Amino acid sequence: MTGLQHLDIEALEELRDVMEDEFDCLIETFITDADKKLVALKAAIEANDPSEIGKVSHSFKGSCSNIGAPYLSDLCKISEDKGRNEDTTDIDVLYEQIKDEYHQVKNLLSEQLSQ
Hints:
Elements: H1 9-19, H2 23-46, H3 50-67, H4 70-84, H5 91-112
Helix pairs in contact: 2-3, 2-5, 3-4, 4-5
């Protein structure tokens, strides 16, 4: 994935410094929450509910941005915009991109635990 940044390591290191002993809990909470958001996004897409697609994507985007996952945040922003504009064209393809990127991020974040 040339030019794409799965994780902003500098931002993660800042979070580690600020959170100290709670850093692992933060990562685990993000992963648990993101797993739920991915399920909710898929359900909204299957229900063809653009409003819910926008809401879930907005929330997911914020979480990704806060944890330092810029490309995943960008994908969620695209999904959010599609939902708000009631444009579900190729939303299944976008969902697959979000899901694939999330799994990359999840694996990389898991490697950051207890370091």
